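Input chain follows. Return structure tokens only.
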Amino acid sequence: MQQKNKETVNLKKKSLGIKKMMLGAIGFLILLMIVFLLQSAPIAPAAYTPLNSPELVGVLKANNLLQKAELLALGKVNGPEEVALDSHGDVYWGTQDGKIMSLKGDGKVDTFAETKGRPLGMQFDTNNNLIVCDAYKGLLSIDPQGRIKVLATSVYGIPFKFTDALDISRDGTIYFTDASSKYGQSEYLYDLLESKPHGRFLSYDPTTGEVKVLLEDLYFANGVALSQQEDFVLINETYRYRIVRYWLKGAKKGTHEIFIDNLPGFPDNISSNDKGTFWLALFTVRNEAMDQLHPSPFLKAQISKLPKALWPKPKPYGLVLALNEKGKITQSLHDPTGKHLKEITSAREYGGYLYLGSLHNNRIGKYKLP
């Protein structure tokens, strides 16, 4: 009897000990939560309610066309965000470790130049100089020998924070973007969560070296593309799922408007084939979890405190759209699996092919147009 009483007492003591441990753990978790909530966020987010994402039907209907693309320099590239082609058809791209590489007709991959930054948008001018938007180094010009000249690093005394994308007019004017005046390339996801317009659209005059701000207050100013007649230029606002048109000529000169809104994904770079078609690369399709977070600044502030590995993940998906000069989508190219091509950040037409870059991938796509 005494033995049973002792066992009962011991069980009660153990049970009490377990309860104390549980209460202690819960108290510790509550303390951690309070500390986490009181911790200052790295962003000051605004509320934003996105439009409902368009369904992938009609011209947007999913297909497997991008899975037919040839893969260039597979395993030999490191984040070819933008692709440029010279007059010989040789392919150039930037890498995550600050190099600009080239792929010759014989299949050989070489290092063309090293910016020691992060080369993003790039295009050859009429003098065969490669004009580059380097996220950290500014607007650069690289001659055929690989010598680098800095064209601009600031405007009106304010340094560029995130030099991103460009296009060059026939008179040599360079139109380019500073994606965010607040967050650098390594912090671009903060700009997404903050939902405030930090982007700028600018021009560079090669004769005078003057830089002008043409548009401010853009929501992550990304890709740039001139129209066939160069009467307007398009600028992507990645984090508003839309494209803005800025008029360069005519009665609307100096004004801007929405060219197309509520896109099915995150528009990155855009290019013109000079025949009335724009090729738009979308990094991925819309993220429902992120769209649901946007109306709540509080939740976005808490998310920003977490390691980025715990943030909503982009879906592996390959997507490129063709648009006409009236803002209508005329074609869509997909890889729904993302296994062949994903995170496409540039699409450039050359010689009957689309050359496709990617922010993080280890390949360049070469898709034969019908």
